[in-house]
Specification:
The protein starts with 8 loop residues before the first helix and ends with a helix. Helix 6 packs across helix 7 (580-590). The longest helix has 30 residues, at 77-106. It has 721 residues and is α+β, with helices and mostly antiparallel strands. 21% of the residues lie in helices and 32% in strands. It has three domains: 135-361, Methylamine Dehydrogenase, Chain H; 362-455; 459-690 and 704-720, 3-Layer(aba) Sandwich (Rossmann fold). It has twelve helices and 37 strands. This is Prolyl endopeptidase. InterPro entries: AB_hydrolase_fold (IPR029058), Pept_S9A_N (IPR023302), Peptidase_S9_cat (IPR001375), Peptidase_S9A (IPR002470), Serine_Peptidase_S9A (IPR051543). It is found in: Cytoplasm, Cytosol. Keywords: Cytoplasm, Hydrolase, Protease, Serine protease. Belongs to the peptidase S9A family.
């Protein structure tokens, strides 16, 4: 299920802020690969002559200068040996024990697995056939990807049979890979694309020279983002240990060379690159979770040093688009601290010159934004309902467009030409496959495109509820159930939660969710604080010293669901992934009687120990979400009060199924192994200390996947899971 990675403003900003988070739970497409990245010689000639210089955070570097970190003395290896060997032995023993336990238990589920696999594969075939793959419209040409191949066809004849093959992963030795992102140079002479392996989050950028016989021009390992500044100048960011802090420029002229353009000195910040819709500027975006800084590369003169838009100001996020010699700034600057659209002349970009264009309503989430020559389209969400706001720069008006009530998620289609008169997008929900829509600026109306071969599900009912939390805050819940189901209090209920990083619960279409609806299940999505469903304040009210509010929200949601007749505790399961494991695991400790089972995928369950280990690649960046227990004793106590691992105690626990990955760089496997061992011991201690008749011992199962990483697995691996 590969996709062409073209993102718009808020998606870009959120993605760059949260991508490197070890817990973000982003639905990143993971790619199979057997690529062996070539050794990079870009810095070799300066390795022995590095200069040391104190630089401010995020500095533009002259072409000849490369920064180096001061060497630090390491403790004697001899002193470390004993503890390291003990830790490694414990890890190996725990892993071996869990693998044996999984092999014994999973055999019991084979008959059920066979039935479920068959159903899922039928649904997958039915809906993927009708959806097709994303298209990149570029003048009269359309670029699209199918089965590891990139095709080129004319816009009026998009058919795989009539298209030219530009790239094939298999033919060029990149078998078993997915194509993650595609960028076409302005004159369409070059194409850059990224390939990503299943077992790593590192991507490899391939640059192909297009023509009668396309030729691979360059292979660049460890690349995160890349954009064409001109027909033959490519900018890209390099990735190391889940961090992106360097920007390079490489040319494909007669004088080929690669140079370092920008380096970020602050470890809390993550750097990526994007191109404005009109291709006037490249933006170098340096973001922490709370603060942004943007530098502009003039595409008319890509060799000129980048220019700073506005120096980073603590607590202010911003991102840039361009139109008619004005920068349009999407920012949290000013009160309230929610996103606003502002503008400023290119000649004087300082914050003091920013002028308000449009401010969002209270508790409204800006999901995405697309800039066109005469219009700006805002994709918005309010209490679960989706709608569009179309800003006209000609008439200076704003029109609000209502969307179908079943829609829960936007999926934008790529149309890089800013002069187009139509905005294309898709709407979807967990149980509704993506449906194509278009908004016509000329006709001023919404068009439902008749390309859906499979009808929208009509027997699924969508209900929206508001649960009152401990502090009286109303928390939205989205519920799906089969209209034909009767006596819903006796039906099984699957509750979803996340609640971190200002990220919404993933509510895109999944075949397994539709299968559950057809089997009579109820699906509930709890939009608790810490997530982003009601804007930036909703996230702020559920992070750091407010994490317990998310737990109170989750409890209130489950209790309301049961109260209004959606299932009951004995038929309720709770599911979470990544950082969602914090709230799910916490509820499992505080209110285990509310659920019968819990399913966790790559869960973050050992918050305190992880945040105490600054040698882990992402701990410092995470402090803006969880706090810093190393320097703040009150923060340590607060984290300890809700941390799932720290609060396990002998009591009756629900059954638990956890999937973890050996190659996960974001969630240390050792923490998951320790959590499972402690949870199992507590459940057994409780069972042995009580002599009640029919005492129930929960199943606590861990499946450690040898393949895969923190991002999404392949379709086959997902089916197996």
């Amino acid at each position: 299920m590969a996709y062409v990675g073209l993102q718009s403003l808020p998606q870009r900003l959120a993605f760059s802020i949260n991508y490197y988070s070890k817990l973000s739970g982003l639905q990143t497409i993971c790619l199979y690969s057997k690529i062996k990245p070539k050794k990079c010689h870009i810095l070799d000639y300066l390795r022995n002559t590095c200069m040391h210089r104190t630089l401010p955070p995020g500095s533009i570097l002259p072409w000849s200068f490369f920064s180096c970190k001061e060497r630090t003395k390491l403790p004697s290896r001899r002193k470390q040996n004993t503890s390291v060997m003990t830790s490694e032995l414990l890890y190996k023993n725990l892993l071996k024990s869990e693998q044996k336990n999984w092999n014994d238990i999973s055999a019991k589920y084979k008959p059920m697995t066979k039935i479920i696999k068959k159903k899922l594969k039928e649904l997958h075939k039915k809906y993927t056939f009708s959806l097709g793959s994303p298209r990149i419209r570029f003048g009269d040409n359309v670029y699209f990807e199918e089965n590891g191949c990139i095709f080129l066809s004319k816009a009026d004849d998009v058919d795989e049979g009539n298209a030219d093959i530009l790239f094939s992963t298999e033919d060029l030795g990149f078998s078993d890979t997915f194509i993650q992102r595609i960028r076409i140079s302005p004159d369409q002479r070059y194409m850059s694309l990224s390939l990503k392996s299943e077992n790593s989050e590192k991507a490899t950028c391939i640059v192909v020279k297009l023509g009668h016989l396309p030729v691979v021009e360059k292979v660049i390992p460890n690349v995160f983002s890349f954009e064409w500044a001109t027909n033959d100048v490519l900018y890209y960011t390099s990735q190391k240990n889940l961090k992106c802090q360097n920007v390079f420029m490489t040319t494909f002229t007669n004088q080929k060379h690669t140079k370092l353009v920008y380096t970020e000195q602050d470890a809390r910040f993550f750097v990526d690159i994007h191109c404005t819709k009109d291709r006037r500027f490249l933006t170098i975006n340096s973001n922490s979770k709370t603060t942004s800084e943007v530098w502009l590369v003039d595409c008319r003169d890509p060799f000129k040093l980048p220019a700073l838009v506005q120096a980073r100001t603590k607590g202010v996020l911003y991102h840039i688009e361009h139109r008619n010699d004005e920068l349009y700034v999407l920012t949290t600057y000013g009160e309230p601290a929610e996103y606003k659209l502002m503008k400023v002349p290119v000649s004087s970009t300082g914050m003091e010159n920013w002028q308000l264009v449009y401010a969002l309503e209270k508790k409204t989430k800006l999901v995405d934004l697309e800039m066109f020559s005469d219009h700006c389209v805002m994709f918005l969400k309010n209490a679960g309902h989706l709608y569009l706001n179309v800003i006209s720069f000609v008439s200076h008006s704003v029109q609000s467009i209502e969307l179908p009530t079943w829609a829960c998620e936007f999926e934008l289609e790529s149309h890089p030409e800013h002069t187009t008169s139509t905005c294309y997008f898709q709407l979807t929900s967990p149980v509704h496959p993506p449906k194509h829509f278009a908004y016509s600026f000329k006709e001023n109306n919404l068009i439902e495109q008749a390309v859906q071969e499979v009808p929208i599900i009509t027997h699924c009912h969508t209900t929206r509820l508001l649960a009152k939390s401990k502090d009286e805050t109303l928390v939205p819940i989205t519920v799906f159930h089969n209209m034909n189901s009767k006596e819903l209090h006796g039906k099984p209920l699957l509750v979803h939660v996340y609640g971190a990083y200002g990220i919404d619960l993933n509510m895109s279409f999944k075949e397994e969710k539709l299968m559950l609806i057809e089997e009579g299940w109820i699906l509930a999505y709890c939009h608790v604080r810490g997530g982003g469903e009601l804007g930036l304040s909703w996230h702020k009210d559920g992070c750091q010293r407010n994490k317990l509010k998310g737990l109170h929200d989750l409890k209130a949601c489950i209790m309301l669901l049961h109260k209004v007749g959606f299932s009951q505790p004995n038929y309720t399961a709770l599911v979470a992934a990544s950082a969602g494991g914090v709230l799910a695991g916490a509820l499992c400790n505080t209110d285990p009687e509310l659920i019968r089972a819990m399913v966790l995928q790559a869960p973050f369950v050992d918050v305190l120990n992880t945040m105490m280990k600054t040698h882990l690649p992402l701990t410092i960046e995470e402090q803006e979400e969880w706090g810093n227990p190393l320097t703040d004793e009150e923060c340590m106590k607060y984290i300890k009060s809700y941390c799932p691992y720290q609060n396990i105690k002998p009591q009756r626990y629900p059954s638990v199924f956890i999937t973890a990955y050996q190659n996960d760089q974001r969630i240390p496997l050792m923490g998951v192994l320790r959590y499972v061992q402690k949870l199992r011991r507590a459940a057994l201690d409780y069972a042995s200390s009580t002599s009640k008749e029919g005492n129930w011992i929960p199943n606590i199962i861990l499946d450690v996947q040898a393949n895969g990483s923190h991002c999404d697995s392949s379709w086959e691996d997902s089916v197996n899971e």
